[in-house]
Every structure is written in C-alpha cells, then in structure tokens.
Amino acid sequence: MAENGSQLWLRFDKAAPLTAGFNSISGDPALKAFDEFQRACRLMTSAPLPVVNQAGANGLLIATASHPAIRALKWSKELRSLGPEGYLIRTVRLKGKPITVVTANQPQGVLYGVYHLLRIMQTGQSLSDLTIREVPTYQLRILNHWDNLNGTVERGYAGHSIWKWNELPAVLSPRYEDYARANASIGINATVLNNVNATPDILTAEYIRKIKAIAAVVRPFHIKVFISINFASPRVLGNLPDADPLRPEVRRWWKQKVAEIYREIPDFGGFLVKANSEGLPGPMDYGRTHADGANMIAEALEPYKGIVMWRAFVYEPGDDRAKLAYREFIGFDGRFHDNVIIQVKNGPIDFQPREPFSPLFGAMKKTPLMPELQITQEYLGHSNHLAFLAPMWEEVLDADTYAFGEGSTVSKVTNGSFVPAPVSAIAGVANIGEDVNWTGHHFGQANWYAFGRLAWNAQLSSETIAREWLAMTFGSDKKKLTVETVPEDILSMMLGSHQTVVDYMMPLGLHHIFAWDHHYGPEPWCDIPGARPDWLPRYYHNASKEGLGFNRTASGSNAVAQYSSPLKEWFDDPATCPEKYLLWFHHLPWNYRMKSGRTLWDELCFSYDRGVQTVRDYQKIWDRNESWIDAQRFREVQSRLKIQSKDAVWWKDAILLYFQTYSQQPIPYSIERPVHELDDLKKVKLDMKHHN
Ligand code: GCW
Q: Ligand 1 centroid vs 378 CA: distance in angstroms?
C-alpha cells in the first residue's frame, strides 16, 4: 500500500520493532489489550505470538490484577494506587527467566499499558528490565468534534465529518474503529460527537439510535460517547412554551430525555453545553443563571453518573472581552452540582496563536474546571501551516497561576490537586476529518497525538512527544527511526514551529488581527459596519500614531486584576511583563525600548522577518530529507510548506505595511523588503466561508 498517512502513528508494518520481541504470550485472551497486541504483532512480523497457559522465558503476560498469574506476583498494594486506568509494565524473573508483565486493575488500564509497550517497540527503546508505572493526569481525556449533522465541520480543515449520520445506524464506516484504536493508543477515553453549536435534532430518537451505533464501535476501546446539546431542545422538540430551567415541565423533559438515552446507551458520558454564547440559547434567556441551567441538566444526568461540561466561552458585550468569562462565572464558584465541570478555553479570548492562560484557572476555588485546547488550527494557518502545538499547550499547562501559592500550575488547578474534582478532565477540539490522512496536513496528526499524550501525562515534554511521533510516523524499512535517531533538523522544525507561526502572525502579544470570519489571513484594517467592536481587529491592536497594543493594566481595562499576585503586578508593569504577552497587556509607544535594545517597531519588524526566514528554512530542512521519506507524504508536506512560505510573506507585508501607516518609521534596512502593495492586500478576499 502506498504510504498516504492513513495509518497515523500506528504503522506496525513499517516501523517494525528494532529490539528483540517476545516468544510467547499468556494472560487473559478475552481482553481487548490482548487482541490489540496480537493484531500489532501480526502486522509487525506477520504472525501473532503463540498463546501459552503459563508465561515462559521471554514471554509476555497481559492480564488484569484479578488474574491468578498477577495475584501470584503479590503486587496488590501497588496496583491499588493505580486507580482504574493506571498500569504497570515490568520485567520480572520467574525461575531466572525474564518475563514482561503488563497489568492494571481494569481492562482499560491494560489496554493503555499494551499501547505503551508497543510504543517502546515502535520507537526502538529497550525492552529489558522495564519498571514502568503510569497513572493519567486527567481522568477524562476527551475530543470535541465540531461536526455538524449535515456532514460539515465547523473550523474543520480535513474534509467532511468522519461521522456519516445519513448512513447510520445501518452502515458503520470502517473508519470508526480505526478512530477508536488511534485514540485508545494515546489514552483518549471520551468523545463529543457533534458541534457545540448544536441543533436540537441530536436528541431525537432517530439520532439516539445513530449515537448508539457509534458507541458500540468505540466501547471495546474504552471510549465513552458524549454529545453537545442545544439548550432550547425542550421547546423545539418537546413543544413546551420555553426552555426555562426552573419550569417543572422543562426539568421533567430533560429527565425523560436522559432516561431515554441511557436505556439505549447505558455507559453514555453526558452533555457538553454552549449556552448564552454567540447567539445560542441558554438560561439567561429566561432571567436564570448559568448555575440554574447547568444544575438542571446535571440533576437529570446524576442518577446515571453522567456529566455536564458547561462552557465558559461567553462574552456578553460590556467590558474588555478578555474579562467577560471571569466576570460572568466567578460569582457561581461553589454553586454547581458535583457532576458539573466548567470547560474553559486555554486563553481568555479565543484560541489565538498565543494567549496568557484564562484567569478563571485557579480563581474558581470550589468548582472543577477543565481546560479546552484547540487541536484544529482555526487561528494557526488551518491545515496549510505546519505548527506543532505541544509547546503551546505545555506553556499553558505549566503556567503558574499562583492561585494556591507558587506551583499551582494550570494543570494542577484542573486535575484535582487543589480543587476537588469528582472527575478531572481536559478537552481538545479535534482536527479530524474524512481526508485520507485524517488531519489534512500530515503534521496535523502530531497535534492529535500530542493532545492525547499530554492529557495522559501533562508533565511530558514537547520534545519527548515529538520524538515518539516522528519515530512512529516516519520510520521505514529504508530508515529505521528510534526516539534517539529521529532527524534532528525535523525535530527542531517541529519544536520551533508554533513560535514561528506566532512570529509571522501575531508576535509580542498581538492578537485577533485576522480576516473576518474565516480567520486565515491578515486583516488588521478590517471594518464591517455594524459589527460588534470586539469582532474587529482594531479593538485588539489599537494602532495609532502614539503606539500599539491593548491596555489591560490598572490604567486601562484592568484585566490584570483577575490574576493572582504576583502575576497581576508582573503583567501590570511592562518592565516585568513577559515580552511574549507585552501588547496583550500594554499599549506602548512605537519607540518603547525592548529588552533587546531595539524599539518596539523594529522588534516587530524583526519578528515578522524571522518568521518568514524560518519557514524558508523549514522548506530546506524538508527537501534535504527527501531521499528517505516516502514519496506521497514528502510531496504533500512540501507543497504545504510552499503555501506556508507565501502566507508568511503575506502576513509580514500586510501587518508591517499597515502598522507603518501609524508608526511612520522605515522597516529596518537589513530586512527583506515588502513584495506586496498594501492596497492590493486590502483587496484580498478569500472564499472560505465557515460553516455555522
Ligand atoms: O471563536 C469561535 C469560533 C467558532 C466556535 C466558537 C466556540 C464552535 O470561531 O467557530 O464555534 O469559537 O468555541 O464556541
């Protein structure tokens, strides 16, 4: 088969193990984990391992804690500390013979352990003397699909939805199982099937049958299914006069609907809700609160241990947009039911190329919060630009909120370490579509992979993740790759690529200077008469003859006050504010002196230029590796790098020429000159309507 990216990082036939394998397998053949190992073995060596009753020399033992062979090891104390999903992988000696054991309390833990073991084999790491113990950072590691029931995907850049709603439940696309396997292999254990901009239809009996069919395919891989719901459903589907959460008939409607779902899907996960946000209905339509709305739905789900993920992506006009979610939610701290989690985007605005973390993290001390990351690159060049997002997510998850003193990082304030959470969770907005390679750009797969790995272990470094992914995804018979031998140039391209996109799009804390609606190219001048001011770039960049940036200090919108000390004081002062967030928090004169000694204007020019030059370097790096990369993937990445290169110049010219009309200073003469006219760039209109 031609190498087309369809196998993702699970290329067992190509990335064959570099180390000696096992002689036999024993344990519990009824486990999915057992099956999956044998399946991978067949692909790697064309034969499964011989199954034996008792593990022999160089044997592999795969079983849960209750299996007699595991009980005999007397590991019960350690096993107890693992919870339902943690696992152990250990080499033991029985009568002097090495045996590799993969075990956990529950079948799902064994499955994650088996995929860990396979990863060791795929990436050429040593299989001897293993002493691995893993417990996930978050209990619920969930993909959010912004997939519409008509097959389009909001902010999806890899083709139509993989969910074939019109064929379901009768026809099950083989991709559903591939999807489940890929997710299980990186520890993802839940999925929200439909767009947060949800239509009531998803709750009809017809759709519940379709959801049930998908749930049946992903269940063996220990993946729970959730859906997004529309708050007005009782009015639309139940013919009630309204959807007021305090109206008894409305409450009854939700209870009955939830009961109907659980009759069909007993392990159903629950609901994700976008309410009173961007025009969607919600409790505030009836003078009620987010707590009223979330708690009503939570009550309906509670008997089944279902969960409500209630989004905090709300920005009713009235103040600096960056402050609005905090203002709306902080007062409800501690007022949500136990099975409600508030889902908060990583930054206070909206998945910008770079944002400081949302001030809600750490501030809500009695309410479980879950981070929402965006895997699909809505604001990062769609599936045309190579941007490995692990470094951005690492920056967010490791950011210190100081809310519970030093060390209360975003990951710790959301994983139950500080705020008790009945279930801790993290979500990623999927970049998956029906494209053969799943994600449009081959390197987009690395972001899906990275999300799963970080959700499992928030401490993993971007470099570790990139090494694993590269070794598994690009190794071949021609060039075996191990975590140690991945090409350093491609590795460093990946690790620097997010910063590179920031450099040519929105450096130094600039944000939301995108083109209207499709969010692909630059449009800092964009002006749509009658549009909400906070949907227009000018609101964010505030360019004038005097300077650039958004004043969120005490003398401006005072958004800094929503952070804990000492952060708020650091952000408030340009001298201590990290330069990567400078124009997020400050409006500064064009001649403001940066740490480099350059003026703000010059520094901006150099950032954009560095972005352009670095993408050109990526082209060189890629081309240099042509000899060993399979032809189709090589060509496809090569052609997207060409687009990225052209786009980077487009961004640089548009932003610098436009801001130059305010700064009235020359672009430093050592920098490549613009190749476009500003007036021409202003006329560019891409036909890229997004599907709402
Ligand atoms: O910024 C917006 C996106 C919308 C998206 C929304 C959200 C699903 O542009 O496309 O809608 O965020 O997260 O709800």
A: 9
Was domain 500-550+587-690 assigned CATH 3.90.1330.10? yes
617 is catalytic: no
For residue 572, indicate whether it is catalytic.
no
Q: Which atom of ligand 1 is nearest to the CA of 429?
A: 13
Query: Which two tokens mark 629?
Result: 């990369």
CATH architecture assigned to 12-134: 2-Layer Sandwich (3.30)
Q: Is the Cβ–Cβ distance between 318 and 273 less than 8 Å?
A: no
Rounded to a whole number of angstroms, the CA Rg of the chain reads 26
Over the stretch 443-483, which tens digit does the pLDDT of each residue have? 999 999 999 999 999 999 999 999 999 999 998 877 889 99
**Containing H/E element for 225?**
strand 224-229
Return d(Cα 110, Cα 25) in angstroms, integer: 14
Question: Hey, where are the domains in the chain?
Answer: 12-134, 140-463, 500-550+587-690
Residue 690, pLDDT above cutoff 70: no
* Known catalytic membership, residue 278: yes
Confidence (pTM): 0.98
Regarding the domain with residue range 140-463, which homologous superfamily does it belong to in the CATH classification?
A: Glycosidases (3.20.20.80)
- Percent composition of the chain: helix, strand, coil (DSSP 3-state, to 5): 40, 10, 50
Coil, helix or strand for 48? Answer: coil
Query: Choosing from 378, 394, 395, 468, which is the catalytic residue?
Result: 378
d(CA 49, CA 26): 9
pLDDT above 50 for 691: no
Measured CA to CA in angstroms, residue 499 lies from 502, 602, 638 at distances of: 5, 18, 20
CA of 208 from ligand 1 middle (Å) equals 25
| Token reading at 589 | 């004169």
Q: Say how many Å lie between the CA of residue 464 and the centre of ligand 1.
A: 31
Q: Which residues pair with 63 in a beta bridge?
A: 103
Distance CA 359, CA 372 (A): 14
Question: Which atom belonging to ligand 1 lies closest to the Cα atom of 274?
Answer: 14
